[in-house]
């Protein structure tokens, strides 16, 4: 798995929190996901399904002003 390779190759430069997060991801079980439009049995393994991704994105990244112009930083 790529994450294991990253940890072994670059772990000396990663913060402990990052290494902990990689370990957490490695401990998760993959889920078999089949897109509704695919034939029976066709699919692949994922950490989160597209539906879970959409839910988490809306929950944690969406905010009321997403489609409005706003100032990110103060201009002096």
Characterize the structure shown.
The protein is mainly alpha-helical. It has one domain. It is 42% helix and 8% strand. It has helices at 2-10, 16-27, 50-60, and strands spanning 31-33, 44-46. It has a two-stranded antiparallel sheet. The N and C termini lie far apart (47 Å). The model has no long low-confidence stretch (mean pLDDT 82).
| Amount of beta strand | 5-15%
The helicity comes to 40-55%
Number of domains: 1
Q: Between the first and last Cα atoms, what is the distance in angstroms?
A: 47 Å
Strands in their spatial order, largest beta sheet: 1-2
Poorly predicted runs are none
Number of strands: 2
Output the radius of gyration: 19 Å
Q: Quick check: average pLDDT?
A: 82
Assembly form of the protein: single chain
Form type:
flat
What can be said about the biggest beta sheet?
A: 2 strands, antiparallel
Instruction: Tell me the number of helical segments per DSSP (H or I, 4 or more residues long).
Output: 3
H/E element order: HHEEH
Structural class, please?
Answer: mainly alpha
Give a summary of the structure in a few sentences:
The protein has 76 residues and is mostly helical. It has helices spanning 2-10, 16-27, 50-60; strands at residues 31-33, 44-46.
Task: Name the features.
76 residues; flat; mainly alpha; single chain; 42% helix; two-stranded antiparallel sheet
What secondary-structure arrangement, pairings included, does this model have?
Elements: H1 2-10, H2 16-27, E1 31-33, E2 44-46, H3 50-60
Antiparallel strand pairs: 1-2
């Amino acid at each position: 798995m790529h994450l294991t390779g990253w940890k072994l190759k670059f772990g000396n430069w990663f913060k402990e929190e990052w290494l902990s997060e990689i370990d957490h991801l490695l401990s998760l079980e993959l889920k078999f996901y089949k897109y509704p439009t695919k034939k029976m049995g066709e699919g692949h393994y994922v950490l989160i399904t597209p539906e879970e991704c959409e839910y988490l994105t809306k929950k944690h990244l969406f905010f009321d002003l997403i489609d409005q112009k706003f100032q990110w930083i103060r201009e002096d």
